[in-house]
Amino acid sequence: MSEFVKQSLGNLIQELKNEPTKAQVSFEATSVLQEGVQVNSTVRQFEFKFDEPELLGGKDDAPNPVEYVLASLGACQAIVYRALASLKGIQLDSVTVKTKGDLDLRGFLGLDSNIRPGFQKIVFETIVTSNESAEKLERLAQQVDAICPVLDIVSKPIPVEGTLTIQRTPELVG
Which molecular-function annotations from GO does this UniProt entry contain (predicted)? Predict the structure, then answer.
């Protein structure tokens, strides 16, 4: 599998070196509120669900958005480890990323405007099983952290713009 990753990424890197304009891509998601606080989201051909624990008014049928953020960070780190290790010929037997985020509900619930509604802090631990040297794996870890898109998103401010579109419910014709 690592050879497939190496070949795929190698081909992409060469293509982008030849045609840098192809490097600009967009990703999209659509999220629709369902019953209670449940949400169905669609990304490409994939659908997944969100919910909240009962403490926050949900039915606890699915992870909540901040849990998906943590899982996305862990998944992105693991993917970037595989990608870079494949390109550099570094053998990885396994990669596990454990993430934890601390959140103060007073911010989310609007009880204290001095407390941010999102995570106060995120920490992660990457557990790599490999017979490569510690120095090589530490260098790899630094490179992973430098280019992991989700780590970049959650650790550095980026511009975010939102708009509101209001649609009126059609009146029932009687």
Answer: peroxidase activity
